[in-house]
Amino acid sequence: MKQTPMLQQYLELKAQVEDAVLLYRLGDFYELFFEDAEKAAPILGIVLTKRRHNGEVTSPMCGIPHHAVASYVGKLLDAGLKVAIAEQVEDPAKASGLVRRKVIRVLTPGTVTEPELLGDGERRWIAAVREAGAGVALAFLEAASGEFGGAACASRREAEELLAQLRPRELLIPEGSPTDGFAAAGGPLVSVRAPAWFDPGRGEGLLRLALGVGSLRAFDLAPGEPLVGAAGALLEYVRTTQGGMPRHLHGFERRRAGGEVVLDAAAVRNLEILRDASGDRRASLAGVLDSTVTAMGSRLLRDWLVRPLANTIAAAARHDAVAALVEEPGRLAVLRELVRQAGDLERMASRLGLSQARPGELGALRAALAALPDIRAELAASPSQLLAALGAAADPLDDLREDLAVTLAEEPPALFGPGTIRSGADRDLDESRGLAHGAKEVLGELEARERARSGIGNLRIRYNRVFGYAFE
């Protein structure tokens, strides 16, 4: 079969992401071809057409405008599909022949971080399981917040219960493993990977790199144990889909029996903790209790409801903190307003850690960091030991706040480009901007200066197509 250059390029890119729907950038549109188009068109509600590549090949196709890609990608992710983005990586005006394209990112239901594609109050876990004898190593990660942890489950039943609690959007399993039955626990999208991905030795290296440590002992992980391999598989998956190692992970939380009251999936469902009998969140226990002012607070409340503390000392410290806030309504009101200003710092950090933050998000981060000193001061003055300790432990991130204040424009654009950097932040950039927007004035000043220096009264700056600008 004779292939046109574009068809050959498309097929090469598609071979890199066989398990994903490929959005191929063509001018102002993302195009889908062949099976991807047939699969996506009914989900997106768009018309399926055909494109002739040569005399032998006619492919089904459909397209979506690039400026509305987020809403269309959200529909594909909600349908349980992965979406690969192939962008033009050179200027079409300067390209000699076909414009080069590259798969820059793979969006999946469990690794998406775009605010417009995420529900504010729900986690988007991705999990990995690796059977080890009678037990199961189960690791879980939320790319959108940096939460990362796992458990060495004593049995398959225990692992299934944990999966049912987490309700992961994606599940990684080793190729050839009998663990595919876990998919029924939460109905996630299953991705099968080579057994080497789950190797503990490889996982240890990835964990040490992502967490910035020389040893995993501080995270209660032993070299060579299966849980290290499962956690490493998650890191490799995020790295390959997002184009880089995550740098925003909080650490690794190993769950062990005893620290929390275990609520199995049936109890969470029957008690309507997260959803009522109809599946609605608003009438659930979490929905009724949720008076939080940020999305990250809403997610934390839901985590606490399904994982109640079993440690009475820790529970009493929480109760004392609540009592202190109730007894000081003025401080509570101030803290609520300050935290509201901070917004969803958790997800802002994840976008930064994955090098995906946009200028507008950096502007929101700047505003959030401006509220941190006041939040720390209010917490430090609280009579509650827990709240005071939280205030002392919070990093004010002074360097980052100052950098954003002096570098980022007051009203940054939606995408990186002209107008992102504040005037005065960089002398060379200011000079280039002056030349771009006031070239005539600059040339006039140069002409006057040289005329005065040389004493030539009729010296002029002239332009022609052969030599460009020159003195005359």
If you had to describe this structure to a student in words, what would you say it looks like?
By secondary structure, the protein is an alpha/beta fold. It has four domains: 5-107, MutS, DNA mismatch repair protein, domain I; 117-254, Nucleotidyltransferase, domain 5 (2-Layer Sandwich), CATH 3.30.420.110; 311-424, Orthogonal Bundle (MutS, DNA mismatch repair protein, Chain A, domain 3); 438-471, no CATH class. 44% of the residues lie in helices and 17% in strands. The chain is built from 18 helices and 14 strands. The strands form three sheets. The protein has a six-stranded mixed beta sheet, with helices on both faces. Strands 11-10-7-8-9-12 form a six-stranded mixed beta sheet. Helix 12 packs antiparallel against helix 14 (359-380) and helix 14 (359-380) runs antiparallel to helix 16. The chain is globular. The termini are far apart. The relative contact order is 0.06. The mean pLDDT is 88.
Write a concise synopsis of the structure shown.
By secondary structure, the protein is α/β, with parallel strands linked by helices. Helix content is 44%, strand content 17%.
CATH level-4 homologous superfamily of the largest domain: MutS, connector domain
Q: Please report the distance between the alpha carbons of the first and last residues.
A: 62 Å
CATH architecture of the largest domain: 2-Layer Sandwich
Strand order of the largest sheet: 3-4-2-1-5-6
Q: Count of helical segments?
A: 18
Helix amount? 40-55%
Query: Quick one: CATH class of the largest domain?
Result: Alpha Beta
**Uncertain runs:** none
Domain module count:
4
Number of strands: 14
CATH topology of the largest domain: Nucleotidyltransferase, domain 5
The backbone outline, from C-alpha atoms, is globular
What number is the mean pLDDT? 88
Q: How big is the Rg? A: 28 Å
Structural class: alpha/beta
